[in-house]
Amino acid sequence: MATAIDLTNKVALITGASQGIGAQIARTFHAAGATVVLNHPDLGTTRADAERLAAELNALRPGSADLQAANVADAEAVRAMMQAVKAQRGGLDFLINNAAILRDRTLAKMSPDDWEAVIDVNLTGVFHCCKFGVEVMRDHGAIVSMGSIAAIQGFFGQTNYAAAKAGVQAMMRVLARECARRGIRANAIAPGVIDTAMAATIPEAARAEMLKNIPLARLGTPTEVANVALFLCSPLASYVSGQTLEVNGGWRG
Fold this sequence. Notes:
By secondary structure, the chain is an alpha/beta fold. It is built from eight helices and seven strands. Helix 1 links the parallel strand 1 and strand 2 (35-40).
């Protein structure tokens, strides 16, 4: 007998939802019946990408996808975004912290700006979204934040990224305790190398070396990460909180 995940009448906000893993999480939650709020930073093509995704989802189910422009590194912009979600949708059930950037350099070559830009978006941005998101989240909701295999493996040239993602994973363990009284669960996902536009920038030689460390001998897909996020927000994961689930094809370094 199949077990279906039904998120009808639930509201999910996904940060960095204009492309890649974030866009697939939005599609997956939407397919399960949720109303989705697509956050984008309004930089480059992100607005146009998010608008196309919203149009795609609203064509399937009218009025089921909203857009919210906000740079998660900006506390006031995030606070305003969460208040807008409350005004428009009555509150929030699921928060998916997916927005992230890369500024890879060795420590010797990494500038303070490289460090601060990544920490501001990838770590402080998660803090902002959790702080203001929990204020409008209904009891028995769930937070899922994207960590990374980089936090575990410590990849060369990713001092800023690895530190930020390790911080996110630790933050979820704390929030699991602090939010438990309201029945809100908090977990992280640590993806391995996922076949996205970001992964496409990895030099072929480096990709080949990475594949040697993956027992399943392939890159992951955005759908495989999105399915884990769906599980963590579903009743099937009702006793899972404070955890980091590694989605990496078995990579152990």
